[in-house]
């Protein structure tokens, strides 16, 4: 699929996709005879995973480390696992903090509903 179709399917702008290619996050993108980018389902799966990592708060620098490890093949499986486990722990801490914030907001809203706060 071309960049326009791919952009729509993955929910990223063509500018972002070109940037990801420039920094090495998207590698080995095929080209048509005319030189246009041609994306595959494998590229789509990869970008969806990258988006998930970003959505869960992983910094782009760490995603690039993961991508580099991934490119080096199965000998880096343990390192990739450790990177994801570390991110998972950070995500759990973030969710716990957000739960505390949500609880505090709920308490404040309840006070307003009960007319106890001006």
TrEMBL record:
Signal peptide bounds: none
Pfam family, one: MerR_1
Domain (HTH merR-type) ranges: 1-69
InterPro entries referenced in this protein's UniProt entry, alphabetically: DNA-bd_dom_put_sf, MerR-type_HTH_dom, MerR_fam
Gene3D superfamilies recorded: 1.10.1660.10
UniProtKB keywords: DNA-binding
Origin superkingdom: Bacteria
Identification of the protein by name: HTH-type transcriptional regulator AdhR
Organism of origin: Vibrio marisflavi CECT 7928
